Structure formats: structure tokens, C-alpha cells
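hey so i finaly got around to running the thing on DUF6816 domain-containing protein from Lyngbya confervoides BDU141951. pasting the sequence first so u can double check i didnt mess up the copy paste, my clipboard has been acting weird all day
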Amino acid sequence: MRKLQSALQSWRSGGWRLRVAVLLLGLSLGLWTRPPVLAGPLSDRLAAFPNWDAPPPGKVAQGELIYPDWFEGTWQATSTLRQALAPLAPEIVTPGFENNRQLLDQPVQFTVRFYNQRLAPPLKAQRGITQFPAPALQGIVADRRFNSVSLGKATLGEGSVRSVSIDPEDPRRLVTQFRQGQQLVSESRERATESTPQRWMTSELFQQTFRSPPQIYLNRVENTTDYHQVDSRHIAARQITAIYLSPQDPDFFRARNRPVALYQYELMLEKPGSESPDRPIP
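ok and heres what it spat out for the C-alpha cells, dont ask me to read them lol
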């Protein structure tokens, strides 16, 4: 009980809450081999970390986020918070930030799944023409409900997450209900991606609403992640989670759209039964 209360108190600082709301994958690259080089806005953004002064540009999010084919399957994940920064301190420090710093270098292990889902394309209507839907497409998506429950169990304890659901009218919205009656709603607003055959970078901007009656907290959260397929049974990634104040926050204009908290994660995904690849660092 105390563990859950402490975690809920630190919600606004963006520590564990993103782990429950969305799958956080972040692991420093170059564990065994350097990934292929990417050039683009997301690559430049990660290279500039932690000197960020605004959220990244992106397109309006629609439907599920589609992952590369090499994500498909069930994975054992080990996630570690490696860096926690408060760029606007001491003027602005989010509640719970110091508590989250205590999670540095503490690995968290859990199970995640990705599966091939049939994706129904939108039906476009034309005046005077009856148009039938195109054949359904397929794509690899995260099992967000399973992953959120799995990660919630690992970080908050058994039974802390009562339920996780996806809004049937808007798959961008993930709703998490907690044992003590709190609710977290996370909605993907904008996305951007860059890729090569063995490397995939993505950035998502979320609007998050945490309800703990009688209080309601609003934040914008960015996840920018660089994934690298080490081999067919291992994926490494580096992820930066940035917390931005909502317009309703009294410090919003002081922050001027700059992040108030930055968290850098490491994570390794391994297929069950895998051994660490014996590949030296160049």
C-alpha cells in the first residue's frame, strides 16, 4: 500500500506513470555493436539531448503505432532509469522528482508482447459513388493492455493496476484504473518516425490526465526512442521521456514550452531462452 501511495504521489514528475501508460523502451546503444547511422530531425534531437527547448514536430496521431516486423512476439524486458534531470531547477521542479531520482540504476524486469494486427483502413466517401473498404492491412502493434498491466505489476506491485482498457472509439486513448480508485488517461496526440532496416526511431507526444479525487493533474509527455535490432532475439533502445506542463498549470508561461523533467532509460528486449549475443563492441 505504501509503495503504491508513494508512486501515485510522484505521478506529475513522470517517473513510473509513463511505464503504466505506454511501453517505455530505452537502452543505450552500442552494447554489442554500433547501429546504422540515421539522419533526420529525431536523430538530431537525440544528439542534442539534454538541450531541448520544445516538443518535437510531428504529425497528428491516427490509430495504433505500427512497429517494424522484428518486434513481433513475446519478450522479456529489463528497463533501467539512467538519468533524471530537472532543466528548470531550482525555479521549477515537479513534485516527486527527487523520489524518482531514487529509482536510478535500479533494473525493472517484466514481459511485453507485440502482435500482427489487421488494420481496417478508413472508408472515404465520394459524392454519388458507393465505395467499399479496401482490403484490411496488417501491422505489428504493441499489446498495450498486457504490457501496461505487466509493467504496472513490476513497478507498483501485484494488484496495483485494476484494469487497462483502450477506448473503442479512439484507439489512441489508453485508460488505466488503479486499485485505490485513481485513473490515468493517456492519449497519443502527435507522432514522428525515422528508420533503416535494423534501426527505428519514433517520437510520440501524449496528453495525460490523472484523476485522484478531488484532484485532477494534466501534463504533456514526450517519448522519443531509438530502437536497434541487435539480432533476431535481442532489441536494444535508448529512450528519453520529457515532461511538459499543461496550459492549466500556474507555471506554464514560466516554463515557456520547455521540458520540466527529463528521464533517460535503458532497456533490453530478449526472446525467452535467449543468451546474450557474443558480439564485441567495435
